[in-house]
């Protein structure tokens, strides 16, 4: 199929990256796919990230990435669920353009609780940027690689352009 898909994600400890790579395996068989990992310009320790995650809309500088999304037909965006905010994702969202009306599929990884509230708040932020989210996926870190997880990943990747 002649469609352009962007798969972009931020992963601090590796869970979101693992999910992104599983999504990549599925999508690259059928579509033209570009994959990028959002990388902060400065490495930070757990305590630094924790403090920043408590500040809504907190941002950190990130390395250059595709910021103009006009030529993509579908964007997969992945992030870990942190307290209130994921600063590298907030920075990426502040820099992107060409997103109005674009279809996004959003996936989050989490280990604790309150993932529904977090996802709902994140989707509201995306809606404010006129981003159309067509699918979401929540993945508990302890479930990665298990049968139900694999089924949910396949379902999340199916019918990418509806």
How is this fold's topology laid out?
Elements: E1 4-9, H1 15-27, E2 32-37, H2 46-53, E3 74-80, H3 87-95, E4 103-110, H4 115-128, E5 132-140, H5 147-157
Parallel strand pairs: 1-2, 1-3, 3-4, 4-5
Q: What is the structure about, briefly put?
A:
This protein has 162 residues and is of the alpha/beta class. Helices cover 34% and strands 22% of the residues.
Number of strands: 5
* CATH architectural designation: 3-Layer(aba) Sandwich
- Enumerate how many helices there are, as a single number: 5
End-to-end separation: 14 Å
Q: CATH superfamily, called what? A: Flavodoxin domain
Bin the strand percentage.
15-25%
Largest sheet, described in full?
5 strands, parallel
Q: From the alpha carbons, calculate the radius of gyration and give it in angstroms.
A: 15 Å
Give the spatial strand order of the biggest sheet.
2-1-3-4-5
């Amino acid at each position: 199929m002649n469609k352009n898909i962007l798969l972009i994600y931020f992963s601090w400890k590796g869970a979101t990256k693992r999910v992104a790579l599983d999504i990549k395996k599925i999508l690259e068989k059928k579509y033209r796919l570009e994959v990028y990992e959002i990388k902060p310009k400065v490495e930070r320790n757990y305590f630094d990230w924790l403090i920043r995650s408590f500040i809504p809309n907190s941002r950190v500088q990130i390395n250059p990435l595709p910021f103009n999304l006009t030529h993509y037909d579908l964007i997969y965006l992945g992030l870990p669920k942190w307290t209130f905010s994921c600063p590298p994702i907030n920075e990426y969202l502040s820099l992107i353009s060409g997103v109005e009306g674009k279809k996004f599929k959003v996936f989050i990884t989490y280990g604790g609780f309150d993932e529904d509230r977090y996802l709902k708040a994140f989707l509201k932020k995306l809606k404010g940027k006129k981003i159309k989210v067509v699918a979401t996926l929540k993945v508990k870190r302890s479930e990665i690689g298990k049968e139900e997880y694999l089924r949910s990943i396949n379902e999340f990747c199916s019918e990418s352009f509806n």
